[in-house]
Amino acid sequence: MDELTSLSNATLDRLSVEHPTYDRTALTPGIVHIGVGNFHRAHQAWYLHRLMQEGLAHDWAIIGAGVRPYDAAMREKLLAQDCLTTLIQLDPENVSAEVIGSMIDYLPIEEGNAPLIAQMADPAIRIVSMTVTESGYYIDPVTKGFDAGHEDLVHDAANPDTPRTAFGAIVAALRLRRAAGRGPFTCQSCDNLQGNGDILRQTVVSLARLSDPALADWIGAEATFPNSMVDCIAPATGPKELALAADFGIKDNALVTHEAFRQWVIEDKFCAGRPDWDQVGATFSDDVHGFETMKIRILNAGHQVIANVGEILSIETIADCMANPTIRAFFGKVQRSEIAPTVAPVPGKTPAEYVDLIETRFSNPRIVDTTRRVAFDGSARHPGFVLPILRDQVAAGRSVEGLALVEALWARMCAGTREDGSVIEANDPIWDDLKSAALAAKERPLAWLEQSNIYGDLIENSMFKEAFSKSLAAIWNDGCEAVLLDYADGVSEKANS
User: 4Fe-4S as a keyword (predicted)?
Assistant: First the structure.
């Protein structure tokens, strides 16, 4: 094999794949992004790179940031290759690669977050964006309000100049900007949360109010928090993915694989300007809610429909789950009978068409998206993605049989063993509590629904309670496949045709 080319500004012209044609040394920063994972680089950073390739947005380069010690490993990898990233697109018919260069630096990770605060206080920064996962916004799971009692936020309120969280750092930077007579930046969430901008606003303004009410009022009046819908499957990177770069003659220790599909719908509320992302495929819309409802309910909730049963049956990937006729039939019936009826059409797409699209995307065998990754943090993802659908079905008096089965499968997974006897390792921030409830529910199913921090008053609904109890008992007695076959009776042949 020929010698691989290590990524750097100096080696770009040696690459045989598409790469930055702009002068990266002339780029200036306009965005700080907190949480530089695979999704960000396959999505927001890619859109910006496409603009830069057209000679635009050269004053909007991204500076990466993190607030947790584990972010330091990604920082080291990216700085070693001048913050370049190889994106490998895994289409079922073809594999292609490109190198993007819209990120130009990555801030040091320090206790107290001084480098991050100083960078965000710089007036050149006009957008602070983030991907910190759905559970990272300090939301009370039942009330959906600000969780002011969380120890991280108590710390930040008491120590506003040396915060522990990204939100505390944002508040500290906005305090410096206000004191210097500068305007605020736009705070932009790129996480899979319905109303993600509204939730980010709630977290930032509420945290500021704990230490400086006048600052909170200024942030609420002057800063903007656009809602957005983001979509692109970008699996975790492991040895197999890293090896793909060698097929293109590249050595990249931080590459990203992703599907061919991307979508970004953004509310056009930017107090300090923005790149023209719409020129490279993003959509600015006043109806982000409609797009995000369709995506979160059909794609994100759809992931939860199949990931837990995949774990229980030792099926490694989402594509492998979709290749299983029984699971595919289960997925299709839940989607079409209980999820799609709660979703309105958006311009260019009906709910039924979107279900078809998601079935195709989930079935892509080149996307090695593990069931374990998708099942992670169920205590945030089920209340965020699945339970709102269930509540709508209950309110409308429609069936919840399939959604109750989804919740029963999650309860069975959290018992911590697969049907082949192997152990499911901890996969949730509150795993011990979930496992305890799941084991109790083996004998008394309602023990699972008594987790009021997750289910609230849903335990009081007899239709859901009875369907859940029946499903969980059947799963333990008869096994997952038998229960899924019974539920999806009559559609397996269609799903496999």
Answer: no
Does 310 lie in the same domain as 268? no
Number of domains in the chain: 2
Strand order in the sheet with 186-189: 103-106, 61-65, 29-34, 127-130, 186-189
| Strand ordering across the sheet containing 85-91 | 94-100, 85-91, 256-258
Backbone angles phi, psi at 358, to 5 degrees: -65, -40
Query: In the structure encoding, which two tokens stand for residue 45, read together?
Result: 């950073």
- Is the same domain home to 320 and 332? yes
Give the integer Cα–Cα distance in Å for 187 and 127: 6
Q: What are the pLDDT digits (tens) for 250-299?
A: 999 999 999 999 999 999 999 999 999 999 999 999 999 999 999 999 99
User: Across the chain, what does the average pLDDT equal?
Assistant: 95
How many other CB atoms are found less than 10 A from the CB of residue 59?
14
Range of 127's domain? Answer: 5-285
Check whether residue 338 and residue 271 sit in a common domain.
no
Same domain, 410 and 379: yes
492 pLDDT higher than 70: no
- Pair (272, 325) in one structural domain: no
Contact residues for 129 (Cβ-Cβ < 8 A; gap 6+): 31, 32, 33, 34, 40, 44, 187, 188, 189, 190
End position of a domain, from candidates 216, 250, 285: 285
Q: Going by C-beta distance under 8 Å and a sequence separation of 6 or more, which residues neighbour residue 314?
A: 418, 419, 420, 422
The strands making up 228-231's β-sheet, listed across from edge to edge, are 228-231, 263-266, 283-284
Amino acid type, 263: Q
Residues 317 and 274 in one domain: no
Token duo for residue 103: 């990120």
| Residue 347's CATH number | 1.10.1040.10
What's the CA gap between 392 and 381, in Å, rounded? 17
Tell me how far apart the alpha carbons of residues 130 and 247 are, in angstroms, rounded to a whole number: 32
Same domain (yes/no): 231, 82: yes
DSSP string of 218-272, one letter each residue: HHHHH-----EEEE---PPP-HHHHHHGGGGTEE-TT-EEE-S--EEEE----TT
Q: What is the pLDDT of residues 49-100, one digit of tens each?
A: 999 999 999 999 999 999 999 899 999 999 999 999 999 999 988 899 999 9
pLDDT in tens, 373-398: 999 999 999 999 999 999 999 999 99
Q: Helix, strand or coil for residue 343?
A: coil
The CATH number covering residue 141 comes to: 3.40.50.720
Q: What's 349's DSSP letter? A: B
